[in-house]
Specification:
Strand content: 15-25%
CATH class of the largest domain: Alpha Beta
CATH superfamily of the largest domain: Dihydrodipicolinate Reductase, domain 2
Order of helices and strands: EHEHHEHEHEHEHEHEHEEHEEEH
Number of helices: 11
Oligomer: single chain
Distance between the termini: 36 Å
Length: about 350
Amino acid sequence: MIKAAIIGDGYTAADLLRLLAGREEVQVEIICSTENIGRKINQVYPHLTGFYDVTLTTADLQEIKASCQVAFLALPHGLSVPMVQELVAGGVRCIDLGADFRLKDAAVYEKYYEKVHGAPHLLAEAAYGLPELYREEIRHTSIVANPGCYPTSSILPLAPLLRSGVLDSQGIIIDSKSGVTGAGRTPQPSSHFCEVNEGIKAYGVGVHRHTPEIAQELSLAAGTEVEVVFTPHLVPMNRGILSTIYARLRRGAKPSDVRRVLEEFYGSEPFVRILPEGVFPHTKWVYGTNFLDIGVHVNESSGQVILVSALDNLTKGASGQAIQNLNIMFGWPETRGLFFPGVHP
């Protein structure tokens, strides 16, 4: 058995606890908070009643180093860096669900997150936590940069196709729509019920912080700079992301190559499902799960490629992927605690 700390008590922390409930080999020893210190976790999240008897505390890094082997950091950007630096030095492996270790260039991080990175020397040590692409790096690292939800929905459909040279690396358009839990649990006017219900809006147009993360990983896959236009939208549902991706076949590639490459690349992957011809995903099919579904359409005459992906932003887009990374890091079967169908309807 290993003991784990969860630093943060927002929606991603709640989903970590949901998915870890019943795991005999993982004991959640410490849950840290700033808003709910002294309260039981089941008072904050009543659906966890009967599963945990943990009182929320401040983040005491000395206590975490003394009692835990792994820490999940579910914090706003900028807060993880000093904690990870100290915890890793103390022998605690860290899975950061925030943005602090995703970008390899500290200057890009500073530009998009408007903060100076406190430990740029650790960026090279952190493994980007997409298991389907970086499984071996994750296995041996002490720092996992858990990917963003939008990047996961965008990178997984595109990376194998760019790596194999099937798609043109320029002019890729990603149109994504997310449920409101992506905005986090902290109240803000833009996520109030009356602001979100019965409407849809684009936000972060041309400047969203996930754009450089997507471009970084797709450029690594392609071996050349990839041009991406990414626009997210907020839709009135609790959880889920649907991304519609537009790209073009590279000269010399055949329309049949798109499906062939995806099916070959993900054929043995437990959590990526390539849907049959003519079938496109629905967020309800992956609700509460660690699956990412991909639908494929190729216009044979024009070479236009349309990929549609769906995932649960709190599970495969955050906490489920974090636990998938945990399983890899500690040598457990990757599907442990994660392989189950979605809640439907």
